[in-house]
Amino acid sequence: MSVTLVHTGISHTRTEYCIWEALNQAWPKASTIARFGTGFSSEQSPDFTQSNLIISTSLEAAASVQCNADQLHLCYLEPHSSNQSPINQQLVNSLTEVEFVVPTKTIQNLNRDRFTSFVKPPVDTDFFCSGSEKRSSFYLLIVDGEWSAEDQLAVDACKELKLSLSIIGIAEEQLPANLHKEPHVEIIGPVDDQMLREQYRLCSGVICPRDVDFDLSAIEAQSCGTPVVIYANCEAANSVVCFEQHGLGSGIYFDEKSVKSLVSALQELELRPQRCQAVIGWCCAAQYSYQQFQISFNKAITKEITYRLKTVKQPVQIEDQQDEEPPEQRSAA
What we know:
Elements (H helix, E strand, L loop, with lengths): L2 E4 L7 H13 L4 E3 L19 E4 L2 H5 L8 E5 L12 H6 L4 E4 L2 H4 L8 E2 L19 E5 L6 H13 L2 E5 L16 E5 L3 H10 L2 E4 L7 H8 L4 E4 L11 H4 L4 E4 L4 H13 L6 H9 L3 H35 L2 H6 L1
Parallel strand pairs: 1-2, 1-3, 3-4, 4-5, 5-6, 7-8, 7-10, 8-9, 10-11, 11-12
């Protein structure tokens, strides 16, 4: 099967890069056209007419592709981030030759007529794994995008409890000016994956305060055996097993977007850290591995091919049935 991967950078988040890398690992011999990614070359100009399968990673990328009726074009949408505008449903409905694969149930519920396949986002769980480092008494906040009021909750809650907080992923100049004066806050800034993994392995827990469909840091943390403190009323929380609800788990929920609610969850984790089990986190994270992503994506491809074969056979069966009818009935038909 000849495969072409098409990407245009939209959100410029780490999740976007993970999706592109996972697709390249799944189809290492595919032709690629992208703004970044494995195998990218500005001189490449893939011939779509030779491709059996085209996979795009955004609506903008999908709209740039012209394909024939005998080609399969799947568009895998990125989980929604704060850097993106709402999904353009008018554009979705205009791309009639494109089949959509979505990463979250929240997105799927926006347009079930078009968003028919669901595949969880990929995370490099082979790289983000447990180590032998001894944990230190600080919490970690990963900011992938602009600073938000939800991120400020983590700062205020840690301040109230006199807990150390390290902030990773966002440049110092993009943070509120008063944050530099907080003695309990360490601003590390953007880091590479190796240092990020080291911080996951060292910290007491990762705070995920945002109301999002998918939180990459929650999966990576669990893959490293690190407890996660996450806002309960969002789809991303489904990736974490709350020890308050199940006795043991991979993290704990806080129910309201308030300092009081987050403080309560942090206090509970500080009091009973043994109720967070690394093995539970590993099991949660394994559902998002590159290998699982490839298996699920192949199932989505098979599902679409099967559907197309059925729709092709149905008219043939109707014609065969008409041919078997008496001549007068076929004439009437």
